[in-house]
Amino acid sequence: MARRILIAALLGILLKAQAPPTPAEPPEEDESLIRPQVYEFNPLQARKELTTGDFYAKKGNTKAAAARYQEATLWDNTWPDGFYKLGEAREKLKEYDAAREAFKKFIELTEDKKKAESTRKRIEKFPKSGKK
């Protein structure tokens, strides 16, 4: 008798484990209801994005790091560090036009004249346009 109860309990557990998952909510089809991300000045969010970008950069995922640095510059477009790191990531990805734009914005915002000059020289070494 105890054996039958144990078998029934095990079968019940197995059947529950094999039950199909409940379907996720389908994506919204009405485009007017989908809200685009609105970026407002938020230095805390920018720092969070930059920190996450640094994590991805350390792991060797330059593309993800560049995306996070781009987010950081959207949250705070007055912070030179975000633009500098974005430029570095784009340069590693050989996206020289995007790197050039990020570095130019960095030069415009930074107060460190020495770093601005070295960045200017760095930009001059890029291919004239497009990818290499």
Q: What does this protein look like?
A:
- The structure is a single chain.
- The protein has 132 residues and is an all-alpha fold.
- The chain has a domain at 40-124: Alpha Horseshoe (Serine Threonine Protein Phosphatase 5, Tetratricopeptide repeat), CATH 1.25.40.
- It has six helices and no strands.
- It has helices spanning 2-17, 43-59, 62-75, 80-92, 96-109, 113-124.
- Helix 3 packs antiparallel against helix 4 (80-92) and helix 4 (80-92) runs antiparallel to helix 5 (96-109).
- It is elongated.
- The mean pLDDT is 85.
Proportion in β-strands = under 5%
Assign a percent range to the helix content: 55-70%
At the first level of CATH, the class of the domain at 40-124 is Mainly Alpha
- Encode the helix/strand succession as letters: HHHHHH
Name given to the CATH homologous superfamily of the domain at 40-124: Tetratricopeptide repeat domain
Class from helix and strand fractions: mainly alpha
Q: Tally the helices: what do you get?
A: 6
The major pleated sheet works out as: none
CATH fold group of the domain at 40-124: Serine Threonine Protein Phosphatase 5, Tetratricopeptide repeat
Radius of gyration: 25 Å
Give keywords.
single chain, 132 residues, mainly alpha, Serine Threonine Protein Phosphatase 5, Tetratricopeptide repeat, 0% strand
Which SSEs are present, and which pair or pack?
Blueprint lengths: L1 H16 L25 H17 L2 H14 L4 H13 L3 H14 L3 H12 L8
Helix pairs in contact: 2-3, 3-4, 4-5, 5-6
How do you describe this structure in short?
With 132 residues, this protein is an all-alpha fold.
